[in-house]
Structure formats: structure tokens, C-alpha cells
Amino acid sequence: MKRAQQIRQAVVRESSPDDVDAIRQQFPILSRTMRGQPLVYLDSASTTQKPRRVIDAETRFYETQNANIHRGVYELSEEATRAYVAAHEAVARFVNAASAEEIVFTRNATEAINLVAHSLADSRLLTPDSRLILTAMEHHSNIVPWQEVAQRVGAQLQWVELTADGNLDLENFARTLSAGKHRVFAGRPTPGVCLVAVTHVSNVLGAVNPIGDIVRMAHEVGALVLVDAAQSVARLPIDIRAWDADFVAFSGHKMYGPTGVGVLYAKRELLEMLPPYIRGGDMVKTVTRAGATWNDLPWKFEAGTPNIAGGVAFGEAVRFLQETGLPNVWKREQELVAYTLPKLLEIPGLRVVGPVPRPNTQTPKRAGVFSFTLDGIHSHDLASFLDEQGIAIRGGHHCAQPLLQSLGLAECARASVGVYTTAEDIDRLIGALKQARRILG
Amino acid sequence: MNNDVIFQPASLLTREELLDHVKHPRNRGELPGADVVREEANPLCGDVVTIYAALRESNLVSRCSFLGSGCIISQAAASILTEYAGGKTFSDIQRMGREDMEALLGGKVSPSRVKCAMLPLVALKRGMESFGVQNAEHPPR
Known about the structure:
The structure holds two protein chains of two kinds. Chain A is α/β, with parallel strands linked by helices.
């Protein structure tokens, strides 16, 4: 308890509450009440709230710049195109991609992963010799597309297990990598290539995977790596070139941006060799009755009129994150983790799902995504009970049924933080959980 | 902030009668010699309810019991329904809908929880239906 108080003071001291207040004031929804009480939003792992500047950017686009892109020779269309391209450039800088040509806008991370899975299969790089290596902690979006593709091309699916404390078992990963067949490639993937699909931060466990190490190990055996960064990209700094990842997928709506815009990053040579996923207007250079040639990158993969206004607003969300500074965001999230975990663990009958870092150790870190079970109370009952007090948490399987099965759970509750989360929010969560245990347990 | 803000439980979830059904379920367990045994589940939330019913004259529920696991709404609904269903006919049960389950539970159920409330009723309805089909010579009417 004493330690919790010390940490609380540290949270308050190190990132002055003025900073959080200044951030909170930018989010209009946080000023509304829920069931007569100030809203406590602890479901940012599902989707984040949106700051005023993002909402305004979408409105402003429609009010002052709306036209289709890459079409008109008139100034308005040129302006719209510049704004949409600028959003790609903002994302490229944000994740340190080599160029905006490697940034494809999709609907969301799910569509980005589907794009890779289908284009890899269509390219015939995936064959019956191929292995698709997934981890036990993947979200359905990084499982189901690979199951379908594996079935289609006859490739083999393999799973990397977790350690007892809820982190990825890197030894198991190394064994899995070296156990099967693989084709070593010199610079270019060849048919039979092996692919590793791994999440950066687990949306259930909060575990942070060492992507740099995973990519290095995979590349040593000639495997490609797809990173699901949906849960991490707005929590901690990401440097795609330092990772050397081949594919990275994430969603704008978990980055304080609008729904309906996501990103696929892929290395240029891969985007060049992969066939398009969806075909139609804007992704072509020339079309004749005989066939078509593909547009330059990234437009080859953005068929049809995209979500232009959403993309522009997403660019504003990225600028918001860049100005807030991801190192600051992650540092504050670590303070919230240090504040929250001991308080959760103090509640009798509460079991935290995922790694619980020991105090005063630096690694492994974990994100502010807290899944837990409480005394056999169903998570939907917990979520309903908390909702009565204006506290939004998630219950259920969190789109990770294979993970929950491997943990021996059908469902669990999850509270997750965002840049606007305060120690007071956590206090209200803890208080309500204690009441829930008394009344429902 | 005070962790123990006074909270007046006003919701369906915290109705004492409901919690009593969860903590002391009625008619919980298999029913030996049941004519109807039907399991239904909500895969989304992991709620499972198996309804057992013994019938008289093939269309009148004489006794009803349940087994299951899951949220408060689904398990309380099952317990309450097994008490209510005794003495009801096939058509009584088939006529029941969301409002009837809400009346039994004592309050409105939010849209996201309707499936939980309906789970035991769906099990009983479907169980009685297939019993009726299997015993077409004595159609439940």
C-alpha cells in the first residue's frame, strides 16, 4: 500500500497532472457524463477517443478541400491529393519508414493483414513447402487470414507458445523456426518462403514482444516477418527500419484517429513484387481491353476512391501523437502500469492475466492493458456493473479465443489506458471492482 | 478520490432476488428420466445452459431443471425459468418472448444482454420442439 502511494506520488510528480489535464481538454468526449458520473473510459485498446483537432481535420476537409484525389487537374483536387499524400508522409515519418511509397492506407489493420496474406498466396511465394508461424497470443485478425491462406496453398501453420508468466517463449520460437524446412533467399523471397506473423503488444496480456530480435532470428533462416502493431503503435516509439520488419500493420482508430483507416507498411521490393489485392480505378496506370498495368507505389494497393477525409484526419492524429511524443506517452503509461498493477493485485480473488513485472526491474515491460478475472464473476457482469458507474471496460474473449483457450479461460475482463487516463480513473476502477466483488462475488 | 463512493445498486444485475438465484440456484442438476434435454450456448460470452424437462401427456411440463455456467443474467434466468415452467404447456412456452423473460427477471435487459436472458428459454423451446417432432404420433398441441 505504501509503495502504491509512493508510485502515485511519482506519477503525479514526474508527469505533472497539468500535462494530462492539457491532453484531456483536447478530447471533447471526456467532458460528458455517463450515468450521472464523469466518464471513465478504460477501453482504449478497443478504440481510442479522438482529440478535437482530429475531428476538426475531417470536418475541415469536407468543408474546404473535398474533391476526389489523383483525378482532377483543377486546384481543389490537387489540394485534396496533397492533403491525402501528406497523411501518408506523416505516417512514414512517424514509424521511420524509408519512404511514403511504403505506406499503404487500408480500412484497418485487419485489411492490411488480409492484403499481405492474399497477395503472398497469389504471388505463389507461399507453396505447400511454406510454413506460417503464428504465436499463441495473436488477435483473430492475425490468425484467420493465415488459416484461410494455409488451407488454400497447402502451407503448414505452426504456433509459438508462451512462457508461464505470459510472455512469448523465445526458445520455443527459435526451435519452431529451425525445426521445419525453409528456403533461404538472397535478398528476395522465393517460392516456399516461411512467414512469421507476430503481434508487437498483446491486446490481452499487455506483453511487449522483442520485435527486433524476432526479425533478426527469422531473417537468419530466410523467413519474412509481419508485425501486428495495432496495439503498440500509439503506446511506444516504433522504428520500422531499426526492426527491419518486412510487413507492419496497424489501425488509425487505435491511434486517436478516425475509424476506417489503417496502414500496411511493407518494404518497397516486396510491394513491387506482390500482385495487387483489390483491383479497379486509381490502382492502374493504363487499361486496355487486353489488360492493365499497375500504378506506382503505394497507389497500386489503394484501389477505388479511398477514405480521403478519414485519411487526412488520420494524418492529424499522427501529428498529435508526434507532438505529444511517444517517449512521453510510453513513460507515462509505464507510470500508470506501476500504479495500477499493485492496486489490482491487492483485490482478493483478482487474478491478472499476463506478465506482472517485479518492482524495480526494468524488463520485460508491459503495456497498460490489464486483463483479469475476479472471483469467478463473469466479465460481462463486471463490465455491466462498472458501466452503472460510468466506467467503460471490456469483457469477453477480446478477439483472441485461441489465447484464452490456452490460458484455460472462456472470457476475462480488460481495462486499458490511453494518453488521457489518470490515476483518478484507476482509483474509480479499483473502488468499483471492490464493490463488484462484495455484491456479485 | 474515495474508493468507496456510496453506490446504490439500481440495476437488474444487482437485484437481490436475481443474485439469490445465482447463489442458491433452484432446480440445478440433471433431471433423471427427462424427456427433453437441450443445451444452448452463447459462443460470444461463453454462457452455456442445458435445460432438462419431464413432460406429461407429451406437451405439459411437469418438472424442469438446468445445468450451466456463465453470466448472472443467463444463470439467474435459467433458475427462474425452471421454477416458472412447471405446469406450463407447450404453447405457453412457445408464446414466451423477451418481455416475458424480462418480467420473470424483474427488469429490462440491455440489448447486449438479451441473448443471455433468452438462452434458457431458447433451450426449452427448441428442446420441446424437437421432442414434439420425434413424437409425431402424439403431436404436442
